[in-house]
Amino acid sequence: MKRFISIALATSFLAAPIYAALPIGAQAPDFTTQATLGGKPFKFALADALKKGPVVLYFYPAAFTPGCTVEAHEFAEATDKFKALGATVIGVSHDDIDKLNKFSVTECRNKFAVASDADQSITKAYDSVMVQKPEYANRTSYVIAQNGKIAYEYTAMDPSKHVENTMAAVEKLQAGKKGS
Asked: pTM above 0.85?
């Protein structure tokens, strides 16, 4: 019976979605990396972006894959609203900058930047490594407040709620600033 219970527990543990993410209120790790917007590479620094407002930082497994393409399209459609709220959107993957130059034009529709994290240092710092395939980022979205703290985190491989959830978090964050 003990063996059966042990096997059942181990099986349920393996079947459960396993991910780690930075908790709300944690200090967001600062980073600077090569990014691209509209096919034009530039240096993205989180600290500089936070001077302008909150940052929506989202990790995705790989450019030009089905879920990542859907997510990029949805963020592109919402970018003007994020900007109106004072937020910067940036996507991060392990892809090299040449691939991201194309992705930023076609799938991100020249609306927001995507950044290269070829060595996964940013992905690891944000606890966004995909457990099943550690060479890829997990689909994790963060909203980082101007004070550099994590205000919201959401992890799900299904891309359908990332934009909606981060938009609601930015709206709540900005409404809180107006109320203070």
From this structure: yes
Greatest Cα pair distance in the chain: 62
Q: What is the pLDDT of residues 18-56, one digit of tens each?
A: 456 899 999 999 999 999 999 999 999 999 999 999 999
| 16: its two tokens | 């459960």
Characterize 13-45 residue by residue with b for buried, 16 or more Cβ atoms within 10 angstroms of its Cβ, and e for exposed.
eeeeeebebbeeebebbebebebbbeeebeebe
- Tell me the domains of the chain and their CATH numbers: 19-179 (3.40.30.10)
CA distances, 7 to each of 2, 3, 4, 27, 145 (Å): 9, 6, 5, 38, 43
The Cα 28–Cα 149 span in angstroms is 5
3-class SS of residue 44: strand
Q: Any idea which residue has 């691209």 for tokens?
A: 36
